[in-house]
Write a structure and sequence with these properties.
It contains 16 helices and 15 strands. By secondary structure, the chain is of the alpha+beta class. The strands form four sheets. Strands 5-6-9-1-10-11-12-13 form an eight-stranded mixed β-sheet. A hairpin with an 8-residue loop joins strand 7 (137-141) and strand 8 (150-154). The longest helix has 20 residues, at 241-260.
């Protein structure tokens, strides 16, 4: 890029992501070692994942199946045949001195994933998604990578199946990139091939360059030539959505500043410092030729085209949200909340089966999710208490307790103390007050408050509310305000 000072608002950020996700399989991708983490280092290992001479990889079908599911979910092309390559480099966490990955025939090509940006749908193109193995992990003792006294290596992770998903540079802001990561995670979890809670299950390399804003066409596209020529940085190994957004925001600022001062941006690989929210230069960007890719002769090419038809995938979040809107007549906001995770959506459908969908939506989307969120809990923490939760909704639906008590006392106590709704109702005496008791309280309220009664006859709106309040007090809040209101009016208008 020519070095010429430019105004900041004439500059635009261009962002592309390379996302590594761990596929949930019981065993590693090329051997039978378990993927389940263990405390004890170097125990989930065998000659294959240790790269011992004479050992041969055997492809795990489960990993291929997961990759095909991902391909279907992002509407990618899955070729007739896919194959594996060796990516050669030396690093102590890589016992074979090469990583088995995919190169020119990845299992998925040309997919898309839709995200929602400020209420508008935006399609992010996915260039490729391929299978590969994870290296082991290093533990630097007594400092970081530069200052450590020594370093320990643990091969338990080596050979864990990963999928690397590479987008086109379609993001225009760090927030869009973060939204994409959230959406991708959601889709992968819906597919059942990914666990976001698992340590190290997501690692992101974030690429960013700065181009003159005028290079962005009306439809948001940028010419290949401009993209090629823009010097970009790649921030490696970011482990969270928020981290990716922060690293990109920092990088956008840093590069804009350079360009504004007429300086060139170096094409390089950078490291994200999570604590400081900054990025630092690691090395000049490596190139493909540095890795001497060649075909993995120990693994024959794999015929995959027929898998696409044979492997079903579940209904995905977008489709499920749309169905919720139609089938249950929910507004977009409720439908979105209720499909935010597969577990929430399943839970809702179980409740909606038994009650009016609208009532079920209020109870799951507003009351339950709200209270869970407040307590930093997840639906998965209460999914096994579905029966208790439906019993609570039933108590409300059948008018046995007031909505207010159900929300503010029963639900909260269910979550805080783990008690069953009927026990809480009994303990707190929340059963709705019997007819007689309400009638007596109504009569008392009328007798004791002649002034309010005459105000009521004079047409003063507040008087009735006052009397309702008196009755509620007498019944200790267990009467239904609507019923009290009716009964009072009936008695006064007699
Ligand atoms: P390389 O072959 O150098 O790894 P790729 O074409 O594979 O480059 O792209 C790697 C990542 O960089 C992709 O996520 C892509 O979207 C992103 N990328 C490509 N060009 C740019 C650019 N000008 N600015 C930001 N990101 C870019
Ligand atoms: Mg690349
Ligand atoms: Zn092994």
């Amino acid at each position: 890029m020519t070095a010429q000072a430019v105004q900041p608002d004439e500059l635009a950020a261009v962002i592309g992501l390379e996302v590594h996700v761990q596929l949930e399989t019981a065993t590693k991708i090329f051997c039978g070692c378990p993927t389940e983490p263990t405390e004890e280092p170097n125990t989930n290992v065998c000659p294959v994942c240790l790269g011992l001479p004479g050992s041969l990889p055997v492809l795990n079908e489960g990993a291929v199946e997961a990759a095909v599911k991902v391909g279907k979910a992002i509407d990618a092309d899955i070729p007739e045949e896919t194959r594996f390559h060796r990516k050669n480099y030396y690093y102590p966490d890589l016992p074979k001195n090469f990583q088995i990955t995919q190169y020119d025939e990845p299992i998925c090509k040309d997919g898309t994933l839709e995200i929602s940006v400020e209420g508008e749908r935006k399609s992010i193109r996915i260039r490729r998604a391929h299978l590969e193995e994870d290296p082991g992990s290093l533990q630097h003792v007594g400092g970081d990578i530069d200052s450590a006294e020594y370093t320990k290596v643990n091969y338990n992770r080596a050979g864990t199946p990963l999928m690397e998903i590479v987008t086109k540079p379609d993001f225009r802001s760090p927030a869009e990139a973060r939204t994409f990561l959230a959406k991708l995670t959601e889709v992968l979890e819906y597919l059942g091939v990914f666990d976001s809670q698992r340590d190290g299950s997501l690692r992101v390399d974030a690429n960013l360059s700065i181009v003159p804003a005028e290079e962005i066409a009306e439809d948001g596209t940028i010419s290949e030539e401009v993209l090629e020529n823009a010097n970009r940085t790649e921030v490696k190994n970011i482990s969270s959505h928020k981290g990716a957004e922060k690293a990109l925001a920092y990088e956008r600022n840093r590069q804009k500043n350079l360009v504004q001062r007429g300086k060139a941006v170096a094409q390089e690989t950078r490291h994200f410092n999570e604590t400081h929210g900054t990025t630092v230069s690691m090395r000049s960007k490596e190139e493909e030729k540095d890795y001497r890719y060649f075909e993995e002769a120990d693994l024959p090419p794999l015929q995959v085209s027929h898998w696409k038809e044979e492997i079903p995938i579940p209904e995905l979040p977008d489709a499920r949200r749309k169905r919720f809107q139609e089938e249950y007549d929910l507004d977009l906001e409720s439908a979105s909340k209720l499909t935010s995770t597969k577990q929430v959506a399943d839970f809702y459908e179980d409740v909606a089966e038994q009650f009016d969908p609208d009532l079920a939506a209020t109870w799951v989307a507003d009351n339950l999710l709200g209270e869970l969120n407040y307590r930093d809990m997840e639906i998965t923490d209460v999914a096994h208490r579905l029966d208790e939760f439906t019993r609570l909704v039933e108590l409300v639906a059948e008018d046995e307790i007031t909505t207010k008590n159900a929300e503010e006392i029963v639900l909260r106590s269910m979550l805080d103390d783990g008690d069953a709704p009927d026990d809480i109702v009994d303990r707190e005496g929340l059963g709705k007050t019997g007819e007689d008791e309400v009638a007596t309280a109504v009569q008392e309220a009328i007798d004791e408050n002649p002034e309010a009664v005459s105000d009521y006859y004079d047409g003063e709106g507040g008087a009735l509310n006052f009397l309702v309040g008196q009755v509620m007090q007498k019944t200790q809040g267990s009467a239904d305000p609507g019923t009290v209101n009716e009964k009072l009016r009936a008695a006064l208008d007699e």
